Amino acid sequence: MHVYLETERLILRRFTADDLELLIELDSDPAVMRYLSGGPPTPRAAIEQEILPSWLRHYENGDDLGFWAAIERVTGDFLGWFHFRPTEEDGVVELGYRLRQSAWGKGYATEGSLALIDRGFRELSVERVVASTYQDNFGSRRVMEKVGMTFVRSFRMTPEELSEDGIYDPVVSAAAFPGEDVEYALDRADWEKQHSNQ
User: Does the pLDDT value for residue 58 go beyond 70?
Assistant: First the structure.
């Protein structure tokens, strides 16, 4: 097991090909997928042939940015995943997370996100962390606020952006999500101010 980092309650490790069924199970929960697809599961073929292979490729370059399986330290249970991945802009990384319902409301998303942000600013060349979610996903928005991120903008993904990975139907997504997405961010300077007394 290749451990990326550990927190008080979590182990974040690299994914392997053996994690396929765990990802399929996670994305088969309508509640988990509510603000992603409107409820329908991610197709098994998409996870097996596109999503998981693309995550595994991140590790081939020894990259410190990518996707990480979240494991509960005490039980060894798979709770979901976090991503801390590069964007097209130098020094800017995107934070994301997807956890099982059983892990909701227990502070795991906040704990894992704080650890990734801390590593990004302390050990990597990260200058800005961004994250986005649907406007009504208040649970996710609270996590972003708890880790020190602030609201930046509202935006609407285009049908082309929604369909580019071949997973989500832009027509269905438009119907399921009539509102906008929201973006939050944390810059290095603001993070340093938050940690100036530590």
Answer: yes
